[in-house]
Design a protein that fits this description.
Chain lengths: 307, 307
């Protein structure tokens, strides 16, 4: 049992077009880093340099997630951690999920891996519930497992690693305005028409099939969200411009990352992805909005040990 | 240009669990047969021995479908056909789709194939619209193209051939009570809760992924329809018994074929499929309901020339 560890858990894009509440993918090169050690003092102690998020373990997603893991083990092991937030809260890139996933992954490693990564999803979800009021897995699953994930069901929890073409490249842009997940949930309707739902699951089916068979044309035609995007995109300045520009530059599709305000585009290679990234940057420069652009492949590994 | 032809167009299972209005598959060994010839007399002449369906071409799905094809060509070519109905109307096995698909396929062959099978889908849909009041493609697409098909979108029409494991075997049982498609549509709600819709598209995603990767466990877990089956199954005598028996005999899943009353089960090999077929037969014998059981692989070819 090593007594100290440093881990990385990637930022994630949830929903991914038509896959509201079920699909997510992990990003390379952006994610939270967590240093963790076991402590004889008992309790969970959290430090988050440069962040004003709560460090009380009962109010912190990482604290709540680790407590769920310890409860399952019937353990009162003390834990100390320092969370280096690299994924900005309220970005729509799975900030709280990245902390929750990294924390349970690190604790599991320090405790000699009593759980598989799949099993860790439920504990990270408990952390997410503390943040958003509902236990979602569409960000924590890809942050832990990497790749492109499907949360097929919650009762029982069933997380599936999807097949996808290895050249698939993701562009995300985060306009630095804050949209709280809870606000963003409120503007969604509780009921939808059967007709709209059918259109949505037609696109979900097309997307999964296109990913599994590397059919980029089908992926592109299927990256349509007819339910959530039309409502939430109103909260994102320049959204229509970004979407048009992504199409013009050859992206397969473009939609909202998680509950926004970040916007993602999927591309079939890094060259077109870089062009899309440049035009996204240009659009927010012209709108005079602070922004951050990230271009990467899908992270295949998920949460990992750094040192 | 040959002047006479005989074709076969398979019966089909539409919806296939969670895929309401978007998924369908073709059956081997059961379907309508159509003899067709070109005629100098002009007009469309239809005979249907042993059937009491309308033979007026304006009121017959095959007649309407062929007229749509001729209209697209700007042709006033006369057509004569004899339709041998093997798929019983009102069975939920795509009876009208089989006639419409076979008719446009045969006419296209006689006219030197101006259209691809994919292009024929739209004409067969026009026939379906005459039958059910709405132009659906989830039966005509698999009847024409064979295999397991996805109708991703109607505007524009986008039909996708899905990947599926070649051992997949289908059991269908048709209890010979009539449920009209139009009645069966009426009992569905126009709105559904977002929560239910999310559960449905999670299962759609799992099913497509399981089919593409031959993950039978995932196919089985995903063959759940939480929206339509709970309502329509009330119209099918013995449905709960069939479903339980299918699970007991090792079927991957079991649900309603099309709008019923036929029920299908998917199995991972012919041995378990035959066991499921036997128990289905037993259940309807015990209930004293006339029935027909069919066990087959998925038909890979779709509509084809017999002679």
């Amino acid at each position: 049992m090593s007594s100290a560890i440093k881990v990385f858990a990637p930022a994630t894009v949830a929903n991914v077009g038509p896959g509201f509440d079920i699909l997510g993918l992990a990003l390379e090169g952006i994610g939270d880093e967590i240093e963790m050690s076991l402590s004889d003092a008992g309790g969970i102690e959290i430090r988050m340099p440069g962040s004003n998020l709560p460090t009380d373990p009962k109010a912190n997603v990482a604290g709540v997630a680790i407590q769920a893991l310890l409860d399952e083990l019937g353990s009162s092991q003390g834990i100390r951690m320092i969370i280096y937030k690299k994924v900005l809260p309220g970005s729509g890139l799975g900030s709280s999920a990245s902390s929750a996933a990294g924390a349970v992954f690190a604790a599991n490693e320090l405790l000699n891996s009593p759980f598989s990564k799949q099993e860790l999803v439920q504990f990270a979800m408990a952390g997410e519930a503390a943040s958003s009021g509902k236990a979602h897995a569409d960000n924590v699953a890809p942050s832990l497992l990497g790749g492109f994930t499907l949360v097929r069901s919650y009762e029982p929890l069933d997380v599936v690693n999807l097949s996808y073409p290895s050249d698939l490249t993701v562009v995300v842009v985060h306009p630095q305005i804050e949209v709280k997940t809870s606000d963003s949930k409120k503007i969604l309707k509780k009921d939808i028409s059967m007709e709209t739902a059918i259109a949505q699951w037609g696109n979900v089916a097309g997307l999964i099939s296109g990913l599994a068979t590397s059919d980029y044309g089908l992926i592109g035609r299927s990256l349509q969200d007819v339910i959530v995007e039309p409502v939430r995109s109103m909260l994102i300045p320049g959204f229509d411009q970004l979407k048009q520009a992504a199409a013009d530059k050859g992206a397969l599709g473009c939609s909202i990352s998680g509950s926004g305000p970040s916007v993602f585009a999927l591309c079939n290679d890094p060259v077109s992805a870089n062009k899309v990234g440049s035009i996204f940057r240009q659009i927010y420069q012209d709108l005079d909005i602070e922004h951050y652009v990230h271009v990467s492949k899908i992270n295949e590994e998920g949460a990992k040990v750094l040192i």
